[in-house]
Amino acid sequence: MSSVPFAPRLIKGALVGLDPMNPLASVVVFQYNPDTMTRRLEPRTAGGQPGDKGEAYRLSGPPKETITLAVEIDATDAMEEGDPQAGLMGIGPTLAALEMMLYPKLATVIANTVLSVAGVIEILPATGPMVLFVWGPTRVLPVRVTALSITEDAYDTLLNPIRAKVDLTLEVLSYYDQPLTSPGRALFLAHQAVKEVLAVTNIANDLGNLGVSL
C-alpha cells in the first residue's frame, strides 16, 4: 500500500468586487490558476524638458501597472458529479459575476433615471464596485477591469455556456489614483511595503555575484 505525502493546499487566485451596500457584490475564484500572467509597468515621470539634468530621476508617483491573464472556466466535471447549479445554468453564474464588475447597480440606474425625469440638473455617474485582484497572501491589489473578452466554447441543451476562456486586462489602482480615505489606497500601500522588503532581501543575494564593491 503506497502512501501519498501531504501536499500543500493550493491557493486560488480570485477577483472580488466590494460595494458599501453589498460587502461581497461579486466574487470569482479562479477554477484553474492561469499558467502565465503578463505585467506591464510604465513609470510616472515628473515631466520636465528633455535634457533637464535635474529631473532625470524624478517620479511623480508609482508606475502605471497593467495585468493581463487568461482564465478558463469549465462546468463539465461539476455536471458529471450532479451539481444542480451547473446542471441548470452551466457557468452562467460565474460569467455574470465577472461581468457585473463592469456594471453600475441597477437600483442606482433606476434612481438616477427618476432624478432625471424629476428635472435634477446634475446627476453623478453611478459608481461600480471596488474590485480586488487576489493572487496569494502578498498580492491583494485594487484594480479596474479595463477589458473583458469571453470566448464560449461549449453549451448544454438549453444553450447555457458550460466552458469558456476569459481574457482579462486589469489596471492596478495605486494610491495615486484613489482618495485618502479609500480602503484600496491602504491595500496598495501595504503591497508596496511588501515589495520594498522583498527588494531589500534580494540585495543580499545579488551583491556577492556583482564582482564590484559599492
Q: Gyration radius, to the nearest Å?
A: 23 Å
- How far apart, in Å, are the first and last alpha carbons? 58 Å
Q: Low-confidence stretches at least 5 residues in length (pLDDT < 50)?
A: none
Mean pLDDT across residues: 85
User: What is the strand arrangement across the widest sheet?
Assistant: 2-1-5-6-7-4-3
Order of helices and strands: EEEEHHHHEEEH
Overall geometry: flat
Tally of structural domains: 1
The major pleated sheet works out as: 7 strands, antiparallel
Helix content: 25-40%
Number of strands: 7
What fraction of the residues are assigned to beta strands by DSSP? 25-35%
Q: What is the structural class?
A: alpha+beta
Q: How many helical stretches?
A: 5
Structure in words:
- The protein has one domain.
- Strands 2-1-5-6-7-4-3 form a 7-stranded antiparallel beta sheet.
- The protein has 5 helices and 7 strands.
- The model has no long low-confidence stretch (mean pLDDT 85).
- Helix content is 28%, strand content 33%.
- With 214 residues, it is an alpha+beta fold.
- The N and C termini lie far apart (58 Å).
